[in-house]
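Batch manifest line 286
LIGAND: zinc ion
JOB: complex structure
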Amino acid sequence: MLEKITPNILFMPAEARTDRPVLGLVFGKKKSFIIDAGNSPAHARQFIKKLSASRVPPPGLMGITHWHWDHTFGMSVWDIPTIAHTDTRKGLEALMEYSWDDESLDKRVEQGLEIEFCAEMIKKEFAWDRDQIKIELPEIIFPESLRIDLGGITCLIERVGGDHDSGSTVFYIPEDGVLFLGDCLGPELYAPKYYYSIDKFLELLEKIRGYGAEIYIGSHGDPESSEDLEREMEGWEKIARIIENRGKDWEGIMSQLKESLGRDPTPDDREMIEFFLNGLEIKEGE
Ligand SMILES: [Zn+2]
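JOB STATUS: finished
ARTIFACT:
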């Protein structure tokens, strides 16, 4: 059985071992809507097995949060139309050119086209049969937003963008107050150093707050209450604003942040600072 989070929403939790993300299901009276395809056929089938034990209408449509492998490599198993942003389709089209054997993966890591962490996870998830990787393209492409009626339950699909991927899409179910975030709050990974850009990040936080959801589901963590996410977002916003004012003065940033938070910055805070500073560096180099 899938885990129930609100009356109309079920999910299967993320698994860190091979970076399997959360897969979601929203159902109304008529249809079930699936959020993300899984990181492999095996992952998708694990979800389908649990789904068949849950009493919900059959899946009729699927939405994809962004093109990264862990959200899309299960697509070939699903026999339902898939909805995605224009940039998600473009990202998948680019992947169709690639081979997935160890040598090709390692070469792309060297060339800066693939992330070392992702290559490692792909090798682990597809340890036995790399031929199972078949890139599928979404059938339904939307430019900014789309509203789906599942029979008394709405799924609002919107591109929010951000550093992680320009096509990052969120799924909001107003009747249940749940927002699926995908990886949209993550940094840009496809660069020499992971980074955030201050403007894009602050704009994204405002968009997320604008939904006024009660429960937030990020792809690689546990569901969070609005209070918990707001507390985190306040901390990130403080970091972004301090760096906006101080630039690359590490000592100054640390002491102002300590004062502002009323505690020592944690390793997570330090990592966040590093990613914002990487963003500044990349902007200067442009
Ligand atoms: Zn991602």
